[in-house]
Specification:
Chain B: One of its GO terms (molecular function) is nickel cation binding. Chain B: Keywords: Iron, Magnesium, Metal-binding, Nickel, Oxidoreductase. Chain B: Its EC number is 1.12.99.6. The complex is a heterodimer of chains A (203) and B (597). Chain A is an alpha/beta fold and 203 residues long. Chain A is 26% helix and 19% strand. In chain A, the strands form 2 sheets. Chain A has a 5-stranded mixed beta sheet, with helices on one face. In chain A, strands 2-7 form a two-stranded antiparallel sheet. The N and C termini of chain A lie far apart (49 Å). The two termini of chain B are 17 Å apart. Chain B has a single domain, classed as Cytochrome-c3 Hydrogenase, chain B (Orthogonal Bundle). In chain B, the strands form 7 sheets. Chain B has a 4-stranded antiparallel beta sheet with strand order 5-4-3-17. A 3-stranded antiparallel beta sheet of chain B has the order 14-15-16. Chain B has 15 helices and 17 strands. With 597 residues, chain B is of the alpha+beta class. In chain B, a hairpin with a 5-residue loop joins strand 1 and strand 2. The chains are: A alpha/beta (203), B alpha+beta (597). Chains A and B meet through strand 3, strand 4 and helix 3 of A and strand 3, helix 1, helix 4, helix 7 and helix 8 of B.
Amino acid sequence: MSIETGRPVLVLGIGNILYADEGFGVRCVEELHRRWSFSDDVLVMDGGTQGLYLVHFVKAARRVIVFDAIDYGEPPGTLKLVRGADVPKFTGAKKMSLHQTGFQDVLSAAELLGGELDDILLIGVQAVELEDYGGSLTAPVRARIEPALTMALDQLAEWGHPATARSTPAERLMHEGIGLAEYETGRPSAEDACRVGDRRFFN
Amino acid sequence: MATVSTPNGFSLDNAGRRVVVDPVTRIEGHMRVEVNLDSDNVIRNAVSTGTMWRGLEVILKGRDPRDAWAFTERICGVCTGTHALTSVRAVENALDIKIPENANTIRNIMQLTLQVHDHLVHFYHLHALDWVDVVSGLKADPKATSELAQSISPWPKSSPGYFRDIQARLRKFVESGQLGPFKNAYWGHPAYKLPPEANLMATAHYLEALDFQKEIVKIHTVYGGKNPHPNWLVGGVPCPINIDGTGGVGAINMERLNLVSSIIDQSIEFVNQVYIPDLIAIAGFYKDWLYGGGLSSTSLMSYGDIPERANDYGDKSLLLPRGVILNGKLDEIHEIDLGAPDQVQEFVNHSWYKYADESKGLHPWDGVTEPNYVLGPNAKGTKTRIEALDEGAKYSWIKSPRWKGHAVEVGPLARYVIGYAQNKPEFKEPVDQLLKALDVPVAALFSTLGRTAARGLECAWAAEKLRYFQDKLVKTIKAGDQSTANTAKWDPSSWPKSAKGVGFTEAPRGALGHWIRIENTKIANYQAVVPTTWNGSPRDTKGNIGAFEASLLDTPMADPEQPLEILRTLHSFDPCLACSTHVMAPDGQEVTKVTVR
């Protein structure tokens, strides 16, 4: 095994699993990887909130699928496809912190470094709840995982990379303690760990 | 209020108009500052607030302590590994687990790699833009830029043609309009002082650093098994060593060791030939901008890190300095005991939490996180739409950690000042050289630029130490020791019924501690006190202000609507905000909102 430096097709799930629907992207790739395998040209990646760590994987790719929670002002739970030049891409220099590096910055940085994408598809879901710290996906968003995976599989097939259903379990994409099932069943009860105070109060 | 003097020596006046700087992300909140300006636009009062409630106990209570690292790794997209390392150290401390020498060495390499990567990326991709006007670089003469570059460094990428190409690429992006990468900034702000050629050179290095950082993180892939979320293990490191192997999955073999070695060489070269010369060149134009010192000339703390010997976390073993400086007495370094109930304590007088007795602080092992969201009588706006905070009352979701009651600054500058005060040559000599190169006195260190300079020097230090520990690892392995984990206490049945422990590291942005209590093999309480809590804390019971608040005082602003000076100083701390990806809104949202009232 060589050090992974990127492949022609990147399927990326991004977001923070600790903030309810913000975990949508990562949970999508977790499930995709659990059920399907792909040719060596395809890299399925749990991108988390990694920002610039992801630049070289994007730069190395020609085609990218990104799963993520979005804020397009749609009704909560809406699944939305955004393609090509419509996928937002910019660098915000007025950041308060490097920790505000978003995926738009990653796309823009990959382009600055000479990366060229033939195609990019954002499969986004309008979040219902982002601020339930320690919580998991809401029911409407969870219900969008399956159609989101279908969209990705169709797109990959169209690009010439059809998926193969796994017959034996794969090595897990992420540490098992934070897999979706373990994450949800192990959550402390509201009595044990106070959940109020999650709401933001600032505008 | 009239002018108020704080016990830690600052004078506050909130009579003038209020400026609010608030970052906007998909998950609302995180951190915001409010300042009051006098009639000359000089900052006379500063209020730093965390606008987001979080507590690790909320997600970790009842879970397996051996999994805690994986959760803490998800708190933040930048501090990933350092939280994981702190977490496994806390569990090992609680259960008295000793790790093998190789595991200690590999963890040091992981942590030092993070330091090098974080400092480099922070400087070029966030902080440099506070000093470098990218757009001004379009006016530079490539030939003069080449002469400038060659006068400060032997770095080979410095020809006129190279800078001409960079300029052309830059122009293409700037002219691409709305989606241009450098669109959202205060370009043209009067506080920018570099000539166009220096701006172009720094922008070229912005791009080179962006490209090079991908090499550095490969070290995490080798020793952490994968990236972007490396694996960690209570009891050691999860990567087996198989020195004669040829590409076994995940195992460390000679080929992998050689790869790491080569990346370390490149890192040392890049830091010494690009980062440090740029730092000196840029700082040279801002020698009269010595604001932002805050607590740094008086009160500093570092837990220390990078143990030379496995399982020895004493100050003799720790290569990064350990100790506390109070009241500016550089000749007296106080010893730290993270288990002592009267040393690290968190206060909530000005935080939105409830204690039974708020006149006292609580040690993290006894930490309580019970929200109590109330606004003071002088707050403006409503609970769901605050226009101005009342700093006389509760005003932040960040608690106020104090060391024996003292507010302290943490981070690279704290580490360097403590190392300097301890007369450790590897910290003192580079500082003296830098001060000499810039022709400024030692006092210049206690400033925004001093913080920025210390980070650069530490990046060079960490790159050198990477070389040291990599060589040590190879030597140990060649001598026949291939062990990387101690699994003797892996099984929870071997644990005591109750245990408590503390793990600490020096994260790139400062002292980080995790305190854990284990009952019946599960986590009963888990408290993290993070560097940005120390630096960004609100006032405490006695009225002492924290590092962010102190550092903003007395800074003149050229244009309150464009608070470049505030961002400069806050950025110099490399603040950590809870990470979300906050992406994918259609309209390229601004990431910082400024309101002047």
